[in-house]
Backbone:
């Protein structure tokens, strides 16, 4: 194998695929990046068996020549060194040549680096998916839907299905749900899906975090291919394969109340800033407990305390208040996680007493909904 390629294009492709390199590979070949040089372009692939990412670099675009291939072939190079080396090469052109027993020479300007290559025949073959269930979604919408739900997955591996985000698509309504049993986040959007529909698709939260990093900033469409136990995301020249999590996701619809005894509408940023200040003390107690109380003058009081540091109390005005007086305690970290992803100036909060779930959603639309279970406190 022998080819010359522009360093920046090679580095960009490496950064994409390296997200799938196994950090603790039980199979040595999975610690590497596979390079295939063909007469149509250069393909880089990495996999940790749960996710696989492939990036294709065409030989040329309308503006410039990116690569020239002197001899086709393949090699696997250890990612840990290959990723760092390419970033630090001195010249904009990189020449890569593979000799006997996969010994690989990387040349850039006056720099020559020899790497021990691995046999590409040992690298796992990417899954071949039937592209019958395909839905296209704007990249920025996909990123928002991930951002507004993925923080609520559990990190407890004893319930593997809850480490993922549930996807359902019916009648053009695409819905994401995540829960760790103490809180829930959901986000939905209308998409042009034709006859495509699916349910109980669960994708690992870690996988979705990695996916969101490589979804392009510019508004491009992402094709999502759903197969039997794999999902493929097509992002231009990048293919991102993810294994689905096994199991049935719990039905969370029954725990979301439709009516409330107390309702508030208030400024998102003001509430976020106030709870952030209260969180500073509640964090010291290792409890994160913050209390919210409705006041006689039609506002609310946010407070928290620390046995060592003292107490924070803050009065907040609200735009609207309806229903019964309320005293409630909740995890301020969970509430801050929600407030960071609410994309409206004002939000709605619904309560059904001090021991029932708290519902938070934007005041101007119902595309997202968040639930937090309160704390039982003695005072």
Residues:
């Amino acid at each position: 194998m022998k080819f010359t390629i522009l360093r920046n294009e090679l580095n960009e492709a490496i950064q994409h695929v390296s997200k799938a390199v196994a950090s603790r590979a039980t199979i040595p070949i999975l610690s590497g990046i596979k390079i295939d040089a063909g007469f149509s372009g250069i393909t880089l692939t990495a996999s940790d068996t749960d996710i696989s990412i492939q990036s294709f670099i065409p030989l040329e675009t309308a503006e410039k020549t990116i690569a020239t291939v002197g001899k086709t072939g393949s090699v696997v190079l250890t990612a840990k060194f290959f990723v760092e080396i390419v970033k630090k090469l001195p010249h904009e052109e990189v020449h890569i040549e593979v000799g006997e027993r996969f010994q690989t020479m990387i040349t850039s300007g006056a720099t020559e680096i020899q790497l021990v290559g691995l046999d590409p025949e040992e690298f796992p073959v990417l899954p071949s998916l039937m592209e019958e269930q395909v839905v296209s979604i704007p990249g920025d919408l996909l990123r928002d839907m991930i951002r507004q739900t993925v923080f609520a997955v559990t990190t407890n591996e004893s319930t593997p299905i809850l480490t993922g985000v549930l996807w359902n698509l019916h009648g053009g309504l695409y819905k994401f749900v995540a829960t760790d049993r103490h809180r829930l986040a959901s986000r939905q959007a209308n998409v042009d899906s034709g006859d495509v529909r699916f349910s109980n698709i669960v994708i690992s939260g870690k996988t979705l975090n990695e996916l969101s990093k490589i979804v392009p900033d510019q508004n491009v469409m992402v094709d999502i291919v759903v197969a039997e136990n794999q999902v493929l995301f097509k992002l231009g020249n990048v293919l991102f394969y993810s294994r689905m999590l096994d199991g049935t996701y719990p039905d969370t619809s029954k725990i979301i109340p439709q009516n409330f005894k107390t309702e508030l509408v208030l400024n998102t940023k003001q509430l976020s800033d106030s709870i952030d200040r209260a969180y500073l003390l509640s964090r010291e107690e290792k409890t994160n407990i913050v209390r919210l109380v409705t006041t006689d003058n039609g506002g609310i009081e946010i407070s928290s305390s620390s046995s060592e540091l003292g107490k924070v109390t803050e009065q907040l005005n609200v735009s609207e208040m309806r229903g019964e007086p309320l005293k409630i305690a909740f995890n301020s970290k969970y509430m801050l996680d929600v407030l960071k992803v609410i994309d409206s100036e004002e939000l709605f909060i619904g309560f059904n007493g001090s021991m029932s779930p708290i519902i938070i959603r934007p005041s101007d639309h119902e595309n997202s909904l968040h639930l937090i279970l309160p704390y039982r406190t003695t005072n």
